[in-house]
Predict the structure.
Amino acid sequence: MENQITNVNEYEAIAKQKLPKMVYDFYASGAEDQWTLKENRDAFSRILFRPRILIDVSKVDMTTRILGFNISMPIMIAPTGMQKLAHPQGECAIARAASAANTIMTLSTMSNYSFEEVASTGPGIRFFQLYMFKDRNLVTQLVRRAERAGFKAVVLTADRPFIGRREDDIKNGFRLPPNVTLKNFEGLDFGEKNKAGSSVSQTRRHIDPSLNWKDVKWLQTITSLPIVVKGVLTAEDARIAVQAGVAGIIVSNHGARQLDYVPAPIMVLEEIVKAVEGRIGVFVDGGIRRGTDVYKALALGASSVFIGRAVVFSLAAEGEGGVRKVLKMLRDELQLTMALCGSPSLKHISRHHIFTRTTFPSNL
């Protein structure tokens, strides 16, 4: 029992031992000085609980409904690219683990398994994360394939007109091994000598830096799937998202991999929730490693959270079984946190259950 894994954080150390340095750094590192990478975790420690007592918590209900889909808990899997680098079964293993936990998995544009391969793993609620490419015909093809494969929503990444400066990747000369490709692009011709699936750098060059809110409207004309905009960090953009008619937004700084010295998503979540006024779903990612983190996000108004690195590190450590364990750990920790705070269901989690160092209990 001495080596038993007792929390999600422990998987990162195992992944670091097992993975080649280039691959571990790709998953683990952030942009430039990596201040925001550290802040994504540290910010949670500045939020404290105000537990209520003598409340019946003999039964704790964590079920919720996201974009019309019932799931077992407010914890979903974020899109992370190139998961086959972590484990041979990559995205397929994660899809099976998510389905077993009755939660939602989001497939990255930069996946190593195709829509069809992921769908073939069995039933499950899956979203498709989309980068907007200069060639809108290519975007249309990707969205159509996602629809045919049974994906239920499009998550549009809006915070990456250009790739952030990730200095570990530069030092390591990050590249995909010859036997690992971006499967959703195989056979698609970008008008270059090589096909898109053979090169990450080629595919990245075709991401459209002119992406704007008009393109969100265009995307709504080519699909009936709900659209979620990922990368919102301000109340101003949240209000525009509501006006644009999207189904939801993800408060995110791209895992601290884009612009350094932006705030942790958990620190701006409350102002964004207030700006949205309940008109669309508000989700959050970034630095979530504990059930207590999930509770804090819910108390600040999030509908649900997404987890990314925790999933990839557990995949690297123990494959599908590791991902299943991470989802169960977070579920069990959230259940215990809810009970100890006096919240028998998600609707009983409120802003009054937490305070920060600048918001003292006497002010609530």
